Amino acid sequence: MKRSKFYQFFPPPQFLQMSAVGLDISDASMRFVELVEKRKGFVLGRFGERPIPRGVIESGEVKKTADLRAIFSDIKKEYNLEFVSVSLPEEKAYLFELHLPAMKYSDLRGAIELVLEEHVPIKANDALFDYDIIKEEGSAINVSVSAVPRALVDGYLEAFLGSGITPVSFEVEVHSLARSVIPEGDKNTFMAVDFGKTRTGIAIISEGAVRFASTVPVGGGALTDAIAKNLEISYDEAEKIKHEKGISGGSTNENLSLAIMSILSILRDEIGKHQTYWQDHVDEYGKKRPMIQKIYLCGGDSNLGGFSSYIASGSNVPVEAANAMVNVNTLDEYIPEISFSDSLRYATALGLALRRPQ
Fold first, then answer.
1. Is residue 105 part of a domain?
2. H-helix or E-strand containing 146?
3. Which strands make up the sheet holding 41-51, listed edge to edge?
4. How far apart are CA 291 and CA 315, in angstroms?
5. How far apart are CA 260 and CA 224, in angstroms?
6. Where is the signal peptide (predicted)?
7. Where residue 10 sits, what CATH number does that domain have?
8. Is residue 121 part of a domain?
9. Is residue 145 part of a domain?
């Protein structure tokens, strides 16, 4: 993330800055990253992760508030976190584009609120939304809007109460992911695939804004289950084999190979469908959409041996592991305290930490 020359050479005193800690929460785990601003850019501060027991959060909704609060309290005690920017699940969000008449930027939020119920199945009073300006064309402003149920955010807020950690902002995870893996200022069109444990997020980013997002209920955990079942071993043993041997599972077991390939083929096909839909359909102005230039892979299991090659076999554009640190600092002068492989799991948290007040 670029900052003004003034702040590069004369950064404000540490006590005048609020620590930028990004907290990425999913059904199975939470990860946090702090970025500390130095003269030559950001460096990593505190970071870590915690598992979330099954049933505490389901499909992005908090089901066991006290249990989640206890995890927050433990992190507070160990890392002394104070202020955090928090992710919201993409699967619970509504993303759409609006074409509004030219107006003052200060009037945009009110204009969006007036038409919100035409685009999402939530009453305006029961929704929270944010927006990005994509571009201005003549007498119109094109904006990308994300809306979530207010009750979803209230569930997380309740869990934070009494934990000692204060959320200062919430953001739909796909926007945080885009801020992390897409080079700042690059207006080309990309797809980001976040291969998580229980689900995979697919997003298309164009002209610097998220233009499309979807969730596929396929994750790395399904691969682990397949290995454990077919080799008759524990889940932990299967997880170890998966990371050592990659998507082959390290076995010539035909049933295992079929099980793994059937899981991954669903994901590859979904990626292909989203790519085709984007590129074969015109936009609201009747113009052909820009071609996707590259597919970036991130998420906990995106670095499995053979995974990127398998995904690439179904695509006609380059596929590569994302550089989640691309907007943090140049790796020519800074060696981060986290490995490239591990950074793929922290992509959303890094994007949250890069978020700055507008």
1. no
2. strand 140-149
3. 41-51, 29-38, 20-25, 83-88, 166-172
4. 13
5. 9
6. none
7. 3.30.420.40
8. no
9. no
Total domains, the chain:
2
Per-residue pLDDT at 155: 97
- Whether residue 216 is found in the same domain as residue 330: no
The reply to whether the predicted model has a pTM over 0.85 is: yes
- Give the integer Cα–Cα distance in Å for 206 and 100: 19
**Higher local confidence (pLDDT), 164 or 247:** 164
Query: What does the alpha-carbon distance between residue 121 and residue 91 come to, in Å, rounded to a whole number?
Result: 14
Q: Is 178 helix (H, G, I), strand (E, B) or coil?
A: helix
Would you tell me how many other CB atoms lie within 10 Å of the CB of residue 115?
12
Question: Which H or E element spans position 216?
Answer: strand 209-216
Does the structure show a pLDDT above 80 at 57?
Answer: yes
Q: Are residues 172 and 312 in the same domain?
A: no
Q: Where are the alpha helices (DSSP H) in 116-253?
A: 150-160, 173-181, 220-231, 235-245
Establish if 255 belongs to a structural domain.
Answer: yes
On the question of pLDDT at 2 being above 60, the answer is no
- Amino acid identity for residue 264 in this structure: L
Q: What is the pLDDT of residue 352?
A: 96
Alpha helices in 32-124 (DSSP H): 65-79, 108-115
Sign of CA dihedral 129, 130, 132, 137: positive
Q: Look at strands 294-298 and 190-195 and give their pairing.
A: parallel
Closest CA relative to residue 31, chosen from 298, 323, 210, 303: 298
Residues 6+ apart with CB under 8 A from 282: 288, 289
* Structure confidence by residue, pLDDT tens digits, 273-317: 999 999 888 776 677 899 999 999 999 889 888 899 999 998 889
Strand 29-38 with 20-25, pairing = antiparallel
CA-to-CA dists, residue 266 to 171, 243, 307, 310, 312, angstroms: 28, 21, 13, 12, 14
| Same domain (yes/no): 19, 163 | yes
Same domain, residue pair 176 and 243: no
Arithmetic mean of pLDDT over the chain: 88
Give residue-wise pLDDT tens across range 59-85.
Answer: 999 999 999 999 999 999 999 999 999
Least confident of 45-49, 175-179, 245-249: 245-249
DSSP 8-state secondary structure symbol assigned to residue 284: T
The domain containing residue 272 runs over which residues?
185-324
Low-confidence winner among 139-148, 171-180, 181-190, 245-254 (lowest mean pLDDT): 245-254
